[in-house]
Amino acid sequence: MHPLHASLHNELHARPSIYFDGPAILHHFAFLQESVQRSALLNQLAEAADIRMETSAAQQIVDCQHLTLKWEQHTEFFTLTVMQHIDADTPQWPSPPTLLKPLLEENAQAIVSATLLRIESAHQWAGSVEDYGFDHPTGSRVAGNDATIWSDFQLNENHINRLLLVNNSLDRYRLGRMARRLFDIETYRMMAMLGLPEAKHLSHELAQYEQQLTTLSTQHAEQQQAAPEPLFKSLTALSAQLERCGAQTRQRFSATEAYARIVFTRIEELREERLGDYPRLGTFILRRFQPAVRYCAAMSQRLETLAASATRLNDLLRTRAQVEIEVQNSKILNSLNERTSSQLKIQKAVEGLSIIVISYYLFSLFKLGLQSLNALGAEISPLTAAAVIAPLSIGILSAIAWRIQRVKKH
């Protein structure tokens, strides 16, 4: 077997739900912490509950003090779920268990999502959603009308969101999965919303960068004769700023998109049906959640578009500079051609003069030779002298010309 076969297969069982029978109260917290901080939190939890925690595991479900604790480690966050059964003395919306209070107080700044879910049976609940303190509640029948969910999505004095699930016929397994879906919606919704502040901050930066790019584009269009170096420097600085923005926000916006897809999937899994005149739970969430997700996606797309525009302007400037360089090179080549042509003409003139001079010296030498022969008493007729001197001169001049051409060729 492949060394990763068992671990990859066991991913199917990596995120189990807490299975329980209602009525019950579930507290769910999500902590935005790094791995080192998670280890400290788990050690704190183990000390408070007096149980052993497997800090290297992805999740764990343990029972202690009539409570069921479940923790999970995710890529960016850590979740803790606590389930307790309801009895006659349990408040309608109780505070977290006493053993968790020190842990929650110490890590309060890291809590990104806090949800309180109350589960009651259909024949035991108060019968009216107003009795649970909801203000302008939303509600839906879910899971094929086997349960009803209520909430007003208003944080209480402890900054906790409250949900009420009225169970008609869900067994313990379906009840556990339904609770997990609701917690996933709240947790991943809040994790996705972390991209919204960055998107708003990025919007102000992009407005400035768009103005700069517009100015540079105008200068490029209207100042074709100006030197491109200042534009290159400004555009390079702008591209560096856009790349910095992309590096800072790319991961957050990608995470927002991924978390939003999980929220959309979990809402679909609820299989909601309308409950009277109340707005549906999923519709209420999506109506306010989707615009934020789309805003983050729009900012990401706006940044990519701006970076692409800067790249195109950079390409135009490079093309313009390249054309100018080619024009300069063409002028230089033309100047070199003219110089070469002049040099060839001068060289031809020198070659002609050289042949003339050499011819002059040859005839002078032949004349001296003939005069010397006449002085010695050897009479040579002019016709004979011409017959001898002419071919010889032509041969010598031809050899000299051939030698000059060979030197030029090399």
Features of the shown structure:
410 residues, 2 domains, nine-stranded mixed sheet
Report on the structure:
This is DUF3422 domain-containing protein. Residues 199-226 form a coiled coil. Keywords: Coiled coil, Membrane, Transmembrane, Transmembrane helix. It comes from Vreelandella boliviensis LC1. The protein folds into two domains: 14-193, no CATH class; 195-318. 59% of the residues lie in helices and 14% in strands. The protein has eight helices and nine strands. It has helices at 5-9, 35-49, 101-106, 172-193, 195-222, 229-270, 281-375, 382-409, and strands at 24-31, 59-64, 67-73, 78-85, 111-121, 138-142, 147-151, 161-167, 273-274. It has a nine-stranded mixed sheet, with helices on one face. Strand 2 (59-64) and strand 3 form a beta hairpin.
| Fraction in beta strands | 5-15%
Biggest sheet strand order reads: 2-3-4-1-5-8-7-6-9
**SSE pattern, N- to C-terminal:** HEHEEEHEEEEHHHEHH
Question: What form results from the Cα inertia axes?
Answer: rod-shaped
Q: Taking all residues together, what is the mean pLDDT?
A: 85
Number of strands: 9
Coiled coil: 199-226
Protein name: DUF3422 domain-containing protein
Transmembrane segments: 380-402
Pfam family, one: DUF3422
